[in-house]
Design brief:
two-stranded parallel ribbon, protein-lysine N-methyltransferase activity
């Protein structure tokens, strides 16, 4: 709407007489977004023919600007035999991002990840999966679910406890498991602060 405003103010038709409704405009935006290639950070452009290259996280080619910046080039990253498919990487995108922006998903996808809320429900699910429902969280008295003050202090240092806590942790992606979640589990299953040594200081 903002882009069309100057034309409308001047009495010009931004769509050259075509009857454009929300559905058609939405299709055009989706078509352009799914074919656009990022030539530079923050710069996405339509590059006919090159945009036909399929995606592969282990791409054998890459798209780059020519030396004078006037054209886009498809450059092989290694020797390719006759008849070999040319693939480029669309980026380190999750399956959701690939589906939203390009209309497909990739499997396996090393960048897939899911955010989960750190808390008692997550911990209880972990206990059930590991068949350790009766294992106390570092409580020498054996009272299940009781978190010790020293554990709370260390969880606050990880921002998983307290007023300014950020309770969302990620599972998946290149790291596989959010390092904060691993650290929290180690804290909760330690019998004392001394058992952790300097690992979570």
């Amino acid at each position: 709407a903002d882009a069309a405003a100057p034309h409308q103010a001047a009495g010009a038709d931004p769509f050259s007489g075509y009857d454009i409704d929300a559905n058609v405009l939405g299709w055009a935006v989706a078509a352009a977004a799914s074919r656009a290639i990022e030539l530079e950070p923050g710069r996405r452009e339509l590059v006919p023919f090159i945009d036909m290259a399929n995606h592969d996280f282990c791409a054998n080619a890459a798209v780059r600007l020519s030396a004078d910046g006037a054209a886009a080039e498809l450059v092989a990253l290694r020797a390719l035999g006759a008849g070999r498919a040319v693939n480029v990487s669309y980026g380190t995108l999750t399956s959701n991002e690939l589906l939203l922006n390009h209309g497909f998903t990739a499997w396996p996808n090393p960048y897939d990840r899911v955010g989960v809320q750190f808390g008692q429900r997550l911990l209880q699910a972990a206990r059930i999966l590991m068949d350790i429902q009766k294992e106390p969280f570092g409580d020498p008295a054996g009272e299940q679910d009781e978190v010790q003050p020293w554990q709370l202090k260390k969880l606050k240092a990880l921002k998983l406890e307290g007023l300014y806590a950020d309770l969302e942790v990620e599972i998946g992606g290149p790291m596989i498991i959010d390092p904060r979640l691993l650290a929290a589990l180690r804290i909760l299953f330690a019998e004392s602060s001394a058992e952790l040594g300097n690992a979570s200081q």
